[in-house]
Specification:
heterodimer, A: alpha+beta, 5-stranded mixed β-sheet, two-stranded antiparallel ribbon, 22 helices, 32% helix, globular, B: alpha/beta, 8-stranded mixed β-sheet, 6-stranded mixed beta barrel, 17% strand
């Protein structure tokens, strides 16, 4: 075993309200500079939809992530004709139009317009050319099913659905959507790191954060193509690639990333996972249907003495192991099997996991009137969310979260429903004990587990949601400078921007 | 995996400081956002190099208790974008004034040494006045300096007061709770001047009229954490993700604890995503759905089976068992007024016998008079105004008979109106006969009337539906045609809702938002669901009840704030305007419609419910129901002078003189001739709001009639010959306003159209207080950096107005003088007993008696030379009179005297109060916003435990039930401004509010009423299912009822606008948006980027296809009121027949010219709306139907009832 510690994440999509506070928290701090205006290290997408950059999930177009060729794991980008052959022309690179042309407005005109025959208005101005422009795309263009005939209808995950199911999704009575917030997955088999010809991308040893070294980056932009999630961006002003840094300066001072801190849906959890780095290739090479289970398998039990011993041997610090034992992510991902990786089929082993959302019960329209499915049936349980009458076909969710394995997603829903049934019976008592036991059995949960899931879902404090491990900065600094000197000298100096590389 | 670098080596990672350096800052300050939003979130603002760089949420909210999810973090995408404004290119950095005005001013000033005379020379020259007005909104701003603009403002105020009276000067600013002192500074200046403050809550159509109708209260709701206690939650027209973004997690968390969540909304809204059931009721038809739910609840939980918890609740906490007289009418009976104690022999001599109601007592087998009705509130003997079920005469316990179904003297036929088909149903109602001074008369209970109204027959004779499938009002089958929702779903919903309430004793909850309240029959849309809640025992329970979160923004420190903000510490009454009536009248929108019964449904035979709404508005002013300013067609100061010249020796005689002149018609009410120049509003101050755009219902009419500039109106006038008491002048005046001053941090639409724009501090640049109904904490606004460039805080701006006026006053008003103020009959005063029967002196129906049949008239002294001194001092009247909060009197002398101990002449201090001295006296000081914050915190029962204790003591005496124990445990709590900048503090249980928050309880409205038997401030002191005001009965609204959605042809928004086969006619829905809080953030680059760079109109995909509109096409949206040009967001989540244009678009940002309206700049969302008023809601002079500022009156309605034409725009022109 080669045990490594990874700061990992869970997003509970049932709680996500699609508000984008996370996106703005990030933008204010990290991507408000020239060259980064179009970059949204954290963005939130409406599903179904085509997302940002548009159709990013379609790897036939973008060629990101890994694929199995003759039983071997290959970067999809390279397996065609090799990186070096394409180094000066990366045809799989998204263009600015796949993102959007960033803009501002001629606000000053409202102050400076001379008196005239009509009211002045502030027109849109391109942040790239400085010219007036018309706005045709944005980083959140299909939000809340805006333009659904164009965007939702072309969601890359709808492929497995029948024509009838697809048509139904577009009927007002059956329509549904949910939100998918996305940041860098800080994968343990990252396509971006593997794709960089300059070796500028790396995974931090202590916490697994994936970074682009701004000194070493040579603007080849292979990382952008290599990442199937399109979470590396090119800064057209500095000529370097940039990406989500998981707010490591905040983590290093004991604070969760800004997007986690600011999440008002309280959907986000952060904590350490231990994994066995020796098994990365094996796990990433699993058959599609087994990818989720294989990825769960690479995550190690922080309470297991053998794992602890191996971790020590690999140099994982003691307090990191302690943090791993308190990790809410470990509970959601491994213990409770509720959180799933996004697109495990990209085979990068993403370390951001999602609890899928419970969505409204289906309805039918007869003779012009709308009735909720099953409203004429007895009992409360079937209508406290429903797996059978769910608005989103399970197949769609399986495409997103389990490489098509519907049983993996179904198991999660049975657990989520069981928790609600269990808690309602306890707090109201209008559900019979038999029904409770049935629900718990279906979800494979004990009463204690259901209670624990409930508590971490509904009641967690800031400190329970975010278990930030100590990152031992004094030790790192010590290798270049005496921390005592650092204390006395930190911050002195002048600020210079990174040099542009051409 | 050799190619994946796992890098530990710190040397190779030195570059990482690139990002570490960014995450560095010099200071972090606690603050929040000061207008428009109900969120009240605590923020940390980061300052680097003296520049605000970003904000993040504070997460240090104290936990209420262990088993409730924490409040943190609070703050949304809009809030976290706010720092963009601080240094943005839309920031107003300097004073601006339009070139046309400044040129004329300088010219006038060169020839007039007195500034007020210079102003007069401009506004009395029609050519000059027109020159200024025509330039409004058309560019041409020039940077000005503060001294010059202050001089213009003071000159305009003084000239207007001299020429017409101070009641021609108006100020509009909304929602004080967002930034207490930013509001109060302006209102205090205006009130000390004698000018008028305009209401906002009603104008925004946020006032849920059903709350005062049923509960006698403006609005009182649960804090969001209380949602977590609910086990069945229905969100109705409230898009919680959008509008309650920081709190919606409680819903999700409640769901995980087993609560069921149902969303009623016509579109698959953002919150529908969160729901277990989505019920897409047809837009505007919620009432029909709830009427049927009530039918099922009454049948299954009250008739077929009598649910003990529900029955007990109804008897104790509602008027359900109170006796109603039945009056004969065309062969049957009609529901009449409550039987009054004074008409029954046993109670013939009791005080206020006309205002005490009766029940039939099972114990006595006779009628009895329970305590707590309004007559007990205003009687001399204190201590009987509580809702114990005890006889007011002998204290004997009463067991009220809820229904006469099982024991009655007779079953009589009572007629019930049904307004969708205009039918009258005759249904049998059980009665008992009671001997009264008027003879032996039949009475029944409110409960029996409800059963009959909702069509639950209980075996009684008459035209009752036989079963749920019987298509008669108000069965589940009946509602299908209006709502589109199947009966099975409705029956199931009703059973689950009531069943849950039974199992949990009241933990069924409804959360409601603006969408439902903005329809014409808004009160009924709320009465129906509130009825369901009362029938199932939910209001006043944690986790239950009606929670309306629309702009209310709870002013938790209400008592001291009201005194300070309205200048009641120096003089009263204040001049407070009911804004919907005001705009309807002054912006001349009344001229564009005929009789309101063209579109509103009322019974066939009525006394009041007919004619033109403007006549009813005028009657409401005459009868003292509603305020209206200006008051008279004469300067009030001149009226005083003339009275004194003709011999009046004291205030009473001055009043008498004015009454005489009103009687003879020598002096007239302005409302009766609003278009006469002497009755125009002249000067308008706008701050913290967007009065010319986002709140300007009928914005184009504002442009035409207030501003006198360009507009896009197609509508024609219809009122000629239709009015009775209001003069219709030809032609309609254009440009009533002499001066519009906007105080703003951004160049929004109101700023762009104003004459003067003054740069105000941003929310991160000032100290202030903030509270909300969404949580129970008190927050500071804190100064992260001083006001940037030449901006000043609102507090400092109004203080400088006060100073300039005082400096200039000796030239115009050298001495203090008297002013006469007209104010309506007032809620929470003995005026509630003024009019048992409404009569109009203007029509000779009664005598004009001020304060009884007409407005109060009171003489007030103004002292302009000392206006500044008064502004900065807390005056002695508050010490003498105490303070009032929601009808509760708080004695304050002791605490006022404590403030007098404060030092004079020290620097402003967040920890301490200061005093000021002038004219030989010492006063608590209000010189700086910090002083004012600390004075409020010191005097409020919610933040000073000793004041709470004293207030509960006083209330205990008044009510006659033990209460003071509620304050015992927190008696030692004190808060200073400095304290709350360290950590937000939870406010205390206070008699000014109805919720107990001791020991970590979540705030829920009415828990003190239910648990402590404090009455609601209504006619019966109970929750009022029945409203017997004669005016209400005249309109057919004494009972909860379904009145249909208005017919768009009858409302006439599309008469001259062209409709062809390439256009859609759609119901125009303008809900709260995702990327804005009203107009704020609508111009913010962050939010514009995350949306579509502008605000599109959302339309159904199939309907769009029919007329060739594809996503992101430019479209013109128009009707006779105006035009909007925007782009289409085509989506299957929008139902056919409606379009959604999220409200409060600025016409300043990315708005092209309209092609169909002559190539002029298109408008904002309010360019398509018009103001109309529902005259029902003018009712006054009667228990809870008495006026309160932002409390009662018509709302600025009709936004939801608007229809528009949508059509693809071929040519784009800027």
């Amino acid at each position: 075993m080669d045990i490594r510690a990874q700061v990992s994440m869970v997003f509970h999509l049932d709680k996500c309200i699609g508000c984008h506070t996370c996106s703005v928290a990030c933008k204010n701090i990290w991507t408000d500079r020239e060259g980064t205006e179009y970059q949204w290290w954290n963005n939130v997408e409406t599903k179904p939809g085509t997302g940002y950059p548009t159709l990013w999930e379609d790897q036939d177009t973008y060629g990101g992530g890994w694929e199995m060729v003759d039983g071997k794991l290959h970067l999809k980008l390279q397996s065609k004709s090799g990186t070096l052959g394409n180094i000066f022309y990366n045809r799989r690179l998204p263009t600015i139009n796949d993102y959007y042309e960033p803009w501002t407005y001629d606000y000053e005109h409202l102050f400076t317009a001379p008196e005239g025959p009509d009211q002045p208005t502030a027109r849109a101005v391109s942040l790239i050319t400085g010219d007036f422009m018309e706005i045709e795309a944005g980083p959140n263009w299909d939000d809340d099913l805006g333009g659904s005939p164009v965007y939702a209808a072309n969601d890359a995950n709808l492929g497995d659905l029948t024509d009838e199911e697809r048509a139904q999704l577009n009927e007002i009575q059956q329509v549904v959507f949910f939100y998918l917030p996305r940041i860098c997955n800080h994968c343990i088999n990252p396509g971006c790191v593997a794709a960089c010809p300059a070796g500028a991308l790396y995974k931090r040893g202590e916490d697994g954060i994936v970074l682009v070294n701004q000194d070493k980056c040579r603007a080849w932009r292979m990382c952008i193509s290599g990442c199937p999630y399109k979470k590396v961006y090119y800064n057209w002003s500095t000529g370097k690639s940039e990406k989500c840094i998981l707010c490591f300066p905040r983590l290093e001072s004991g604070q969760p990333p800004a997007c986690f801190h600011s999440c008002v849906g309280r959907i986000r959890y952060l904590g350490v996972l231990l994994y066995d780095a020796n098994r990365i290739e094996e796990v990433a090479s699993s058959p599609a249907a087994e990818l989720v289970e294989a990825q769960r398998g690479i995550i190690q039990d922080p309470f297991d003495p053998a794992v602890i011993g191996a971790a020590r041997a690999s140099g994982v610090p003691e307090n990191m192991l302690a943090a791993a034992r308190h990790s809410p992510v470990y509970k959601f991902v491994k213990q409770w099997r509720l959180a799933l990786p996004l697109h495990p089929d990209f085979r990068t082993l993403p370390m951001l996991y999602y609890v899928p959302p419970m969505l409204p019960v289906l309805a039918k329209v007869n003779a012009g009137v709308y009735d909720v499915t099953g409203s004429d049936s007895p009992g409360l349980v079937p209508l406290l969310s429903s797996l059978e009458a769910a608005r989103v076909p399970l197949r769609y969710l399986a495409r997103l979260f389990s490489a098509g394995n519907e049983e993996v997603v179904g198991e999660v829903y049975r657990k989520l429903i069981a928790v609600r049934v269990f808690k309602r019976a306890k707090t109201v008592g209008d559900i019979g004990e038999h029904e409770v036991q049935e629900a718990l059995a279906a979800g494979g949960l004990t009463a204690a587990e259901a209670e624990a899931i409930f508590r971490l879902t509904a009641l967690p404090s800031y400190e329970e949601r975010f278990v930030v491990p100590p990152l031992g900065r004094e030790g790192a600094i010590e290798q270049t400078e005496d921390p005592y000197a650092h204390k006395r000298e930190a911050g002195f100096g002048t600020r210079t921007a990174p040099e542009r590389r051409w | 995996m050799g190619w994946i670098q796992d890098l530990v080596d710190p040397k190779a990672r030195n570059w990482e400081e690139f990002y570490r350096n960014r995450w560095q800052h010099d200071n972090v300050i606690r603050t929040t956002h000061g207008v428009n939003c109900t969120g009240g979130c605590s923020w940390a603002v980061y300052v680097k190099d003296g520049i605000i760089t970003w904000e993040m949420q504070q997460t240090d909210y104290p936990l209420l208790c262990d088993d409730i999810p924490p409040y943190e973090p609070r703050g949304c995408q809009r809030g976290i974008s706010a720092s963009w404004y601080v240094y943005s290119p839309i920031r107003v950095k300097y004073p601006y004034i339009r070139g046309a005005l400044i040129d004329l001013w300088r010219e006038a000033r060169a020839t007039h040494t007195q500034p007020a005379e210079a102003w007069q020379s401009i506004v009395e020259d029609e050519q000059k006045r027109t020159r200024i007005q025509k330039a409004r909104g058309k560019g041409g701003f020039r940077r000005a300096d503060w001294d010059e603009v202050l001089e213009i403002v003071a000159a305009a105020c003084l000239h207007t007061a001299k020429r017409y009276g101070p009641d021609r000067i108006f100020g509009f600013s909304p929602i004080p709770a967002m930034s207490y002192l930013s509001y109060a500074a302006g209102s205090r200046f205006l009130q000390l001047f004698g000018a008028v403050n305009m209401s906002f809550y009603d104008w925004y159509a946020d006032l849920p009229n059903a709350f005062p109708e049923i509960w006698g209260d403006q609005t009182d709701v649960a804090e969001s954490a209380d949602w977590y206690h609910a086990k069945y939650i229905i969100s109705m027209g409230s898009n919680l993700n959008m509008t309650r973004t920081p709190d919606v997690h409680f819903i999700s968390e409640a769901r995980h604890e087993g609560a069921k969540f149902v969303v009623i909304a016509p579109d698959f809204s953002q919150v529908a995503k969160y729901s277990d059931w989505w019920i897409p009721v047809q837009a505007g038809q919620d009432t029909a759905l709830w009427m049927a739910i009530n039918h099922v609840i009454l049948k299954e939980f009250h008739a077929d089976r009598k649910t003990p918890y529900f029955i007990d609740y109804l008897k104790r906490y509602s008027d359900a068992s109170f006796l109603v007289k039945l009056t004969p009418s065309a062969g049957s009976f009609k529901a009449g007024q409550f039987l009054r104690a004074g008409r029954v022999a046993r109670y013939a001599g009791v005080e206020n016998g006309d205002w005490k109601m009766l029940v039939h007592d099972r114990n006595a087998g006779a009628v009895r008079m329970p305590k707590g009705t309004v007559g007990f509130r205003w009687q001399d003997q204190k201590g009987q105004w509580n809702i114990k079920l005890e006889d007011g005469l002998d204290d004997q316990p009463i067991d009220p008979e809820l229904s006469f179904r099982d024991e009655h003297d007779e079953v009589v036929m009572v007629s019930f109106h049904e307004f969708s088909e205009g039918r009258v149903y005759e249904r049998g109602v059980p009665v008992r006969y009671v001997e009264t001074a008027d003879g032996i008369i039949p009475v029944t209970t409110v409960f029996d009337l409800l059963m009959a109204q909702f069509g639950v027959g209980r075996g009684l004779s008459g035209d009752y539906p036989q079963h749920y499938d019987d298509d008669k009002p108000y069965t589940p089958a009946w509602q299908e045609r209006f709502t589109g929702i199947g009966r099975e779903t409705v029956i199931r919903l009703a059973r689950e809702f009531a069943g849950n309430a039974e199992a949990t004793e009241g933990k069924s909850m409804i959360i409601v938002g603006a969408s439902v309240n903005h329809w014409y029959n808004n009160n009924q849309s709320y009465r129906a669901p509130i009825t369901a809640l009362i029938l199932t025992g939910c209001p006043g329970r944690n986790g239950g009840g009606m929670n309306h979160y629309v702009g209310q923004e709870k002013l938790t420190l209400v008592a001291p704030w009201t005194s300070m903000a309205l200048g009641l510490d120096w003089s009263k009454p204040p001049r407070l305007q009911q804004t919907p009536t005001w705009h309807y009248v002054h912006s001349d929108q009344w001229r564009y419609e005929g009789e309101f019964t063209d579109y509103a449904r009322v019974p066939a035979e009525t006394k009041w419910a007919k004619g033109h709404a403007v006549d009813l508005a005028a009657a409401s002013v005459r009868m003292g129901w509603m305020p209206f300013f200006p008051q008279f067609n004469r300067n009030p100061m001149e009226l005083v002078n003339e009275a004194e010249a003709s011999g009046a020796r004291n205030d009473d005689q001055i009043v008498e003189s004015v009454v005489d002149r009103l009687r003879t018609g020598d002096v007239k009410l302005s409302v009766e001739d609003p278009d006469a120049p002497e009755n125009w509003p002249r000067v308008w101050f706008i701050w913290r709001g967007n009065a010319l755009q986002s709140s300007a219902k009928g914005a184009e009419f504002f442009l035409r009639h207030y501003l006198g500039t360009h507009d896009n109106i197609e509508a024609t006038e219809h009122a000629a010959g239709k009015t009775e008491t209001v003069t219709f002048r030809e032609p309609a005046p254009r440009g009533k306003m002499d001066l519009v001053v906007d105080i703003n941090f951004r160049m929004d639409t109101s700023a762009l159209y104003s004459d003067i724009v003054l740069p105000t501090a941003f929310w991160y640049e000032k100290n202030d207080l903030n509270t909300t109904d969404l949580h129970s904490f008190v927050h500071p606004l804190g100064q992260a950096v001083p006001p940037v460039w030449e901006s000043k805080t609102d507090y400092e701006i109004f203080k400088s107005f006060a100073r300039t006026v005082s400096e200039m006053a000796p030239l115009v008003f050298p001495e203090p003088f008297k002013d006469i103020v007209a104010s309506p009959l007032q809620h929470d005063t003995p005026d509630e007993l003024a009019q048992p029967t409404p009569l109009d002196w203007g029509k000779g129906e009664c005598e004009l008696v001020p304060g009884v049949t007409a407005p109060h008239l009171r003489v007030v002294e103004r002292d302009y030379a000392n206006l500044y001194n008064r502004f900065i001092s807390l005056g002695p009247l508050i010490r003498e009179n105490g303070m009032n909060g929601h009808g509760v009197h708080v004695p304050v002398a002791k605490f006022y005297d404590q403030l007098l101990e404060s030092p004079v002449g020290t620097a402003p201090d967040p920890r301490r109060t200061r005093a000021v001295e002038w004219g030989g006296r010492k006063y608590p000081g209000l010189e700086d916003a910090l002083d004012a914050c600390n004075v409020l915190l010191h005097l409020a029962p919610e933040t000073n435990g000793e004041v709470a204790y004293a207030a509960f003591e006083a209330e205990e005496e008044n009510v006659g039930v033990p209460l003071v124990d509620l304050a015992e445990g927190t008696r030692g709590v004190r808060m200073t401004f400095h304290d709350i900048t360290r950590q937000v503090r939870r406010t205390l249980t206070s008699p000014c509010w109805s919720g107990d928050v001791n020991d970590g309880r979540t705030y829920s409205a009415w828990t003190l009423n239910v648990e402590r038997l404090v009455p609601w401030r209504t006619l019966t002191g109970r929750q009022q299912l029945y409203n017997d005001h004669p005016y209400y009965r005249d309109f057919g609204e004494n009972l909860p009822i379904y009145k249909p959605k208005l017919d768009p042809v009858a409302t006439g928004d599309i008469v001259r606008s062209q409709v062809d086969d390439q256009s859609l006619v759609l119901n125009y829905i303008t809900p709260h948006g995702k990327w804005n809080i009203h107009s704020t953030y609508k111009d913010n680059l962050r939010m514009l980027t995350l949306s579509r760079g502008m605000d599109p109109i959302w339309i159904n995909d199939r309907q769009a296809e029919e007329v060739g509109i594809v996503d992101n096409d430019w479209v013109e949206v128009f009707n006779d009121n105006g035009v909007v040009v925007t782009r289409a967001a085509v989506s299957s989540r929008i139902p056919p027949g409606i379009c959604m244009y999220y409200h409060a678009v600025e016409r300043t940002i990315y708005i092209p010219k309209s092609q169909i309206r002559g190539g002029k700049r298109a408008g904002g969302h309010n360019s398509l709306t018009r103001t109309r008023i529902n005259p029902l809601l003018l009712a006054g002079g009667y228990a809870q139907f008495t006026y309160g500022f932002n409390y009662w009156g018509p709302i600025g309605i009709f936004t939801r009832d608007t229809f528009v034409v949508v059509r693809k725009m071929e040519k784009l022109e800027w």
